[in-house]
Amino acid sequence: MSAGGADQVACSSVEALAKARQMAACGYGMIGAGLAIVVLLVLHLLLFVAAARAAAGVRPVTWFDIFVTGDDNRYSLSRFQMWLWTVVVVIGFTALSFATGKFAAVPQNPLLLMGLNGVSAVASTAINTRKTPAGAVDPGSPANVWPPPPRTGPAARRALAPASFVRDIFFNPSVPGDLDLPRTQMFVWTVLLLLTWVVLFLKSFPKFDSNGLPGIPGELVGLMGVSQGAYLGMKAVGEKADKPAPGSGTASVVMDAAARRAAESKL
User: Fold this and answer.
1) N or C: which end of the chain has fewer CB within 10 A?
2) Rounded CA gap, 19 and 188, in Å?
3) What is the reported pTM?
4) Contact present, 202 and 94 (Cβ < 8 Å)
């Protein structure tokens, strides 16, 4: 065999070895992704069972109740964003770490975006909580309220409407049929960024220059920040508009058990 033929055979062997290593890396990456999916599903199942037990007899709990706020029984866009990015980044991190045999590097901007979603979720929950003043009593538990709220008739407590993804995400809760543009814009950008990130990950897997996950341009992170700010601003304005005027509504006196028994004995 000539020297040229030997070099060609050696090159072919090196290429075959590189392909074999790449296929093995892809296999390990698929195992890591599958393991992450199983862990996330089991965790979601455990949380679902725990939530169903905690809310037994109070309200129904669905599989996607993790996206629903307990204050108004509506789907939360900020929770949905936080959940989506957490699931995708966890699966990508586990897959790449298994494929390369070391912890994958996570760029700064995806972490900033996840943190931004977390801050938005906390701020949104705080705005929802302001709708119920501190010390307010849940009408569904009238044991410490005097006089007790009626259970029948026009003044009876109304049950919360069931959660609807399309209605809660895209429409204004105060005005039926009114499209909420800030929420819609934020949802569209979230889906587009997420799909683009997944496609870039799959095209580069497992060949990454720094063995890290794909990054996100800072301009897009800033755009998401602007969308989050507009969403929270509109939510806060809507909360103030929906807040009843001082002194309006039916007053209820919160009483402890002893005071309640004393009041009942005078009847």
Assistant:
1) C
2) 38
3) 0.69
4) no
